Amino acid sequence: MNKVVLPISMEGKTVLVAGAAGFVPSTLCEFYLNLGAHVIGIDNFITGSRSNIDLLSSYKNFEFHQHNIYERLPNFKDQKIDYILSMASPASPIDFAIIPVEIMRVNSEGTLKLLELAKEKNARFLEASTSEVYGDPEIHPQKEDYVGHVNCIGPRSCYDESKRFAEALTMSFHHKYNVDTRIVRIFNTYGPRMRPNDGRVIPNFITQAMKGEDLTVYGDGSQTRSFCFSTDLVQAIHTVLMSNDPTPFNCGNPDEYTVKQTAELIIKILGSTSKIVYLPLPKDDPKRRRPDLGKLQRVSDYAPQVGFEEGIRQTAEYFKSSL
Ligand code: UDP
Q1: Which of 31, 65, 187, 320 has the lowest tally of Cβ within 10 angstroms?
Q2: Which atom of ligand 1 is nearest to the CA of 205?
């Protein structure tokens, strides 16, 4: 099988990133800016950070539009666009409780608008989907052909089901209009530019450990996650974007930890005096999650480069400077 060829430069290419102020999308924007692409960022700052856009604005090849993409897109009338990355959804479980309707709208109406733009511009479209499409998985590790186990009326459903819809819509545009599409299923990711108060486990544990506060483990901490550092994730997404396969690819890091181990490791890595406390487990919290990366690794040499200890140190450094 031919391996994906990664371009050494993206000069002359235009990449549109919806959700550019977010943690992963802003890291991806910087990656493409450094490859010489013209990058158009869009965000409405519902959960994204202005500081991420300020940082990107120091690149002369970056252009930013403040918009809610499910209401309307900026007018790109005569502008050539080569790649459209659909990354605008809030993705933390605390967002699911506060802005569920906005999440459903951005992944349905917002994705529709981006796909229509891709059709009009003849651009390649990438949907940033999620391991959440597998719900609370009954098979382990998760392969792309597993159809999932999602509670369609549970507290996570606004995200899980709207991302499943976004994948279905993407495939429908591919089949009906021959739009050149890609889908990535992103597993748990962490790194600099994440909101310290994002509510997800790594920023919670790092900020708690840095302040000497108790680390809040939900349930008995036996549930597992596999954490990928952001620059590794960007490499995986870029590889899928440059592939020629429209079907979904898992993207992440297969190193799996229980949540209790994660807390213990973070206390150790940061030399913290914090203790662990146990709080109730949220409803529908997935028990085990680990990506099977076989499909991605059959078409590329992708392998995560940043280990957990190094990644936690870099993330803690970032939080120190932004707290
Ligand atoms: N979690 C925890 N303490 C926290 C935040 C999260 O024990 O302060 C747990 C959560 O219940 C889940 C895992 O850590 O089992 C990962 O949660 P996160 O919100 O980061 O992402 P998820 O994978 O659930 O979308």
Answers
A1: 320
A2: 8
Strand-strand pairing, 181-186 and 14-18:
unpaired
pTM confidence score:
0.98
Rounded CA gap, 225 and 318, in Å?
Answer: 22
Q: What is the DSSP secondary-structure string of 61-112?
A: TEEEEE--TTT-----TT----EEEE-----SHHHHHH-HHHHHHIIIIIHH
Angstrom distances, CA of residue 234 to CA of 114, 191, 237, 240, 303: 20, 11, 5, 10, 12
Residue 172 lies in a domain: yes
Domain of residue 58, residue span: 14-194+228-254+290-304
Q: Which of 201, 226, 315 should be mutated for ligand 1, with most atoms under 8 A from CB?
A: 201
Q: Which one of 32, 134, 159, 190 is the catalytic residue?
A: 159
Is 285 a pocket residue for ligand 1 (Cβ < 6 Å)?
Answer: yes
The answer to whether position 264 is within a domain reads no
What's the 128 CA to ligand 1 centre distance in angstroms? Answer: 20
Predicted pLDDT of residue 322: 79
Average pLDDT, the chain: 97
Is 319 within a domain? no
Q: Does ligand 1 lie within 6 Å of residue 216's CB atom?
A: yes
**282 within ligand 1 shell (Cβ under 6 A):** yes
- Total domains in the chain come to 1
> Is residue 279 assigned to a domain?
no
Task: Using the predicted structure, report yes or no on whether residue 25 has a pLDDT greater than 80.
Answer: yes
- Indicate if 159 belongs to the active site: yes
Confidence bin at 304 (pLDDT 50/70/90): very high
Find the CATH number of the domain harbouring 83: 3.40.50.720
State pLDDT tens for residues 149-184. 999 999 999 999 999 999 999 999 999 999 999 999
223 CB within 6 A, ligand 1: yes
The reply to whether ligand 1 has any atom less than 6 angstroms from the CB of 38 is no
Residue 323, pLDDT score: 64
